[in-house]
């Protein structure tokens, strides 16, 4: 479903390449974030249908989607954003804090190697990849507070060769940066980057940093954040976000973006949304 807005001619989509993992073994068998409740039933078929619609939406928008084979015993492997950070063809892999997810890192590392990515480094610090890293086209915004170690920010700067800005998360519901912030449009030679974020997920100092760096940001509220509205994916014009994020969608449309609303309710039971399922590969 799309929300019509007054499209700004400057909102130009760019073709993206994504890596995704089908939720063939999706389940909520343990608790590693506040959204997970193993006592609540999970419909694996519905999760697959929602994931498939997300994948097919990207393809309809003109993007390339590659898939990695899921592995039994790794129900969160569907959340591919946590598997690596790729900028200019350089790959920084992941190292998970939760032991339940630690084996995922090696499966994704093998995928990158098998697909010709030779400039690949596995981190020595806890680093949950695009869960806590957001590339603006000029800066790597890096979250910490619950999952990724602060020292991983410096490691990312050395490996990827890009400037890193550290941001502190303080609300345990928004344990990854990608649950509270996403990049709407990357910086170009003629325009700064634009982001959307939920201020209350961050420390006071981090809020001041974000306001200074992105004075024109779209600000989300509690309703937007609690439905994972900030766990969105933008190609510079089209913004894929959860069905319930109606008020955020209206604000985006008013800025010239075209919201695309999808149902991710089953995936949200494990603390995931569109971005969690989507790793961007920047060559």
Automatic annotation (TrEMBL):
Q: Which SUPFAM superfamilies match?
A: Pentein (SSF55909)
The identity of this protein, by name, is Amidinotransferase
Q: Which organism is it from?
A: Amycolatopsis minnesotensis
What taxonomic ancestry is recorded?
A: Bacteria, Bacillati, Actinomycetota, Actinomycetes, Pseudonocardiales
């Amino acid at each position: 479903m799309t929300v019509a807005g007054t499209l700004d001619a400057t909102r130009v989509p760019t073709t993206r390449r994504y890596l995704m993992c089908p939720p063939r073994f999706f389940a909520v068998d343990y608790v590693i974030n506040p959204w997970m409740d193993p006592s609540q039933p999970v419909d694996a078929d519905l999760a697959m249908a929602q994931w498939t619609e997300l994948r097919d939406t990207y393809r309809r928008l003109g993007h390339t989607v590659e898939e990695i084979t899921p592995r039994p015993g790794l129900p969160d492997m569907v959340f591919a954003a946590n598997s690596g950070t790729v900028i200019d063809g350089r790959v920084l892999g992941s190292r998970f804090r939760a032991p339940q997810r630690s084996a995922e890192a090696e499966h994704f590392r093998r995928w990158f190697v098998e697909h010709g990515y030779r400039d690949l480094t596995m981190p020595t610090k806890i680093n949950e990849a695009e869960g806590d890293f957001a590339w603006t086209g000029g800066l790597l915004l890096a979250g910490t507070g619950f999952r990724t170690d602060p020292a991983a920010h410096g490691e990312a700067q050395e490996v990827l060769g890009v400037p890193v800005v550290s941001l502190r998360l303080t609300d345990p519901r928004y344990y990854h940066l990608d649950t509270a912030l996403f990049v709407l449009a990357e910086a170009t030679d003629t325009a700064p980057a634009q982001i959307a974020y939920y201020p209350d997920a961050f420390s006071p100092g981090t809020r001041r940093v974000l306001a200074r760096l992105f004075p024109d940001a779209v600000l989300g509220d509690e309703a937007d954040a609690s439905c994972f509205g900030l766990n969105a994916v933008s190609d510079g014009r089209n913004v894929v976000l959860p069905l319930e994020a109606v008020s955020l969608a209206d604000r985006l449309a008013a800025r010239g973006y075209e919201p695309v609303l999808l149902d991710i309710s089953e995936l949200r039971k494990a603390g995931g949304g569109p971005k969690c399922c989507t790793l961007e590969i920047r060559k």
